[in-house]
């Protein structure tokens, strides 16, 4: 069979699988049932073919923006970017944007036909572009809410994601290592060579993003490392130091597991009231529209959160080999963020002084959007109010309208950050824009 014939055959298989899979879901609960401290958890429902209902990527029409909640307004802080995923605010107010996507998979770890099909699905969602492998600097010197300066700040990286400045050292979490660069306040590019601090788990990179935060005193770095599979189907030998938050000593390059059983920990921030580290976690797929809710939680050092043997505490997942001892250790997370919402970005709103006061005690969460749910979920930015350092109440929509009337994704929110003036910034990797949210009609 010729290469062309093989490609046509595989394309036909993909179309058939996606057509069948789109009908495979059976949503029994409204999406809001999967939010809060006590989400409703139905029995697992595993079909022969997983539900695939991705929103095809489309561009924003000229002048179009997401829809802001009442009392808020949204404008473009920057456009014309290339797959912007993550945001970091430097002390002088400059915004660093990681333009990034998944690194190439090793030939022997692409996952066969299933991996090929999923690659095509993700490509349809706008996630199939080559990684730009760079960090862009945006500067709004006049404070009008629009970045007038855009420079290539760092290039030649390897699927960069998390960023953290400690003193005059800027740390970058690549897909395979944490590296460091010298930084001087106000510089708009760095041409110095990278210094490797520590290797990170890589290889198959089922989950490739590596988020990064520094401890308040700068003595430790914390890196979120996602699993190399959905529920360990590639073998637990591939999961060493994965599905975990790693604590790194930047002075020595040593690392240890800080917390584990977190399938894909991405957005991390320090709670300004309690001082605890919080994280947004993407949970597992393929056991029903309503399982398993993504969540955010405070991180207890040394704790285990269930993956792959259980979910949302000690609810057993029957797919991996049984491990009662690990299930007994599993801690229940603090707050569910909806099933399959792909909750990625997380930042506390205490610095959001350009938003009404009601939006300043709680977390903003960027929900990239579902693929494994027959009724789409996510595709928006939400706010979860906090009281006394803990979530208190249902989520509130901040930005919606990322899906158009045809069900296409005009944009998909990822990283969220507060700018130097107190506005909320949102990275949109399909819309290739950074949106800025302030008070106003």
Essential attributes:
single chain, 441 residues, mainly beta, Neuraminidase, 3 helices, 9% helix, disordered N terminus
Describe the structure.
By secondary structure, this protein is mostly beta strands. The chain has a single domain, classed as 6 Propeller (Neuraminidase). It contains three helices and 29 strands. Strands 2, 22, 23, 24, 25 and 26 form a six-stranded antiparallel sheet that branches. It has a five-stranded antiparallel sheet with strand order 1-21-18-17-16, with no helix packed on it. A four-stranded antiparallel sheet has the order 3-29-28-27, with no helix packed on it. Helix 1 (3-21) crosses helix 2. The termini are far apart. The relative contact order is 0.17. The model is unreliable at 1-24 (pLDDT under 50).
Q: Can you describe this structure in just a few lines?
A:
The chain is mainly beta and 441 residues long. The protein has 3 helices and 29 strands.
The tally of strands reads: 29
Question: CATH topology, which one?
Answer: Neuraminidase
- The low-confidence parts are 1-24
CATH superfamily: TolB, C-terminal domain
Estimate percent helicity.
Answer: under 10%
Shape call: globular
How many domains in all? 1
Number of helices: 3
What is the end-to-end distance?
61 Å
CATH architecture: 6 Propeller
Portion in beta strands:
25-35%
Radius of gyration: 21 Å
CATH C-level: Mainly Beta
**Average predicted local confidence, pLDDT:** 91
Main pleated sheet: 6 strands, antiparallel
The helix/strand class is: mainly beta
